[in-house]
Amino acid sequence: MLIISFSFRLLWKGNWFIQEKSCKILALVVSARPKNQDAIVANGEASNSKKPFTTIDDVLKGLVEWLCAQLKKPSHPSRGIPVAVNCLAALLKEPVVRSSFVQADGLKLLIPLISPASTQQSIQLLYETCLCVWLLSYYEPAIEYLATSRTLPRLVDVVKSSTKEKVVRVVVLTFKNLLSKGTFGAQMVDLGLPQIVQNLKAQAWSDEDLLEALNQLEDGLKDNIKKLSSFDKYKQEVLLGHLDWSPMHKDPLFWRDNIASFEENDFQILRVLITILDTSNDPRALAVACFDLSQFIQHHPAGRIIATDLKGKERVMKLMSHENSEVTKNALLCIQRLFLGAKYASFLQV
């Protein structure tokens, strides 16, 4: 165990070459050791360490401290962060490393590294960063942080744009781990992951484990959608742009019970609905969007004012001359409700 003691002391001394080699030796020796040999390490003290270490756990805690320092302020401009992430990917299976890393706010330094990559070097860094997140997805305190950060949207952006099989695999496995935790399932649905998984399944992957993980994730997402409330299902339809005449659209109770929910996130769903009127080429989606906007105008106390402020009227007016009769019929209904107001519009035939 002398090599561990010696390598640890060198982390805090010397030039970058010595630090890098010491870090890699430590990560290799510690991760490869038999788990029943967590013996006492020869006493040694780092130059800026507060107390001597005597066990492997002490070494690991000190190593995590050094790795977090590299993520925050790298000793080498181009190698500091990649070396730190590479070592973390090897060490985060250790319980003491996970707990020390989370306690040191290491996730706050790691998550910003999750972004689409193009060069070979950046792809490797992205893969090892996502591997770290996957390992942390087994650790409850880390999951709590992941739930309140922008980790999920970042991972979704990566899996949408990456063609590297190992990157896609580790992200999909992370999604699978998180799916049943807290609100992750609902967030994944909101971010359009069901459609993304379908697109991924259509690609020619050679990794059977990835294909199996995609199938399991798809099944899990379907089960999650079944558990969602009627408004959650409606949000899913709108956010994916897959509007159809499902029963809730023409159910007066749905609109009465959920009209206040349209105000969430500064009328996010209403804004997306109006955007669909301007961007969709699907006549069915356009007809349903016109109808839904008319229902919002009918049931919300300030429906006409809000729809007008969000440029809904102009977009519906353009659809009055659409070639599809179903679109023009529902566009006319929407315009009538815009001009008549709720009191008189309630007599219009649906």
Task: Describe the structure in your own words.
With 350 residues, the chain is mainly alpha-helical. Helices cover 69% and strands 2% of the residues. It has helices at 2-11, 16-32, 56-72, 80-91, 95-103, 106-110, 120-136, 140-148, 151-161, 165-178, 184-190, 193-201, 208-227, 230-240, 252-258, 264-279, 283-299, 303-309, 312-318, 325-340, 342-345, and strands at 40-44, 53-55. It has a two-stranded antiparallel ribbon. It is elongated.
Mean pLDDT over all positions? 87
Backbone structural class: mainly alpha
The residue fraction in helices comes out at 55-70%
Sum up the overall morphology in one term: elongated
SSE succession: HHEEHHHHHHHHHHHHHHHHHHH
What gyration radius follows from the Cα positions, in whole Å? Answer: 27 Å
> What's the N-to-C terminus distance?
79 Å
Percentage beta strand: under 5%
The total beta strand count reads: 2
Number of helices: 21
Order of strands across the widest beta sheet? Answer: 1-2
Largest sheet: 2 strands, antiparallel
User: Which blocks of ≥5 consecutive residues have pLDDT under 50?
Assistant: 42-50, 344-350
Structure summary:
The chain is mainly alpha-helical. The chain has helices at residues 2-11, 16-32, 56-72, 80-91, 95-103, 106-110, 120-136, 140-148, 151-161, 165-178, 184-190, 193-201, 208-227, 230-240, 252-258, 264-279, 283-299, 303-309, 312-318, 325-340, 342-345, and strands at residues 40-44, 53-55.
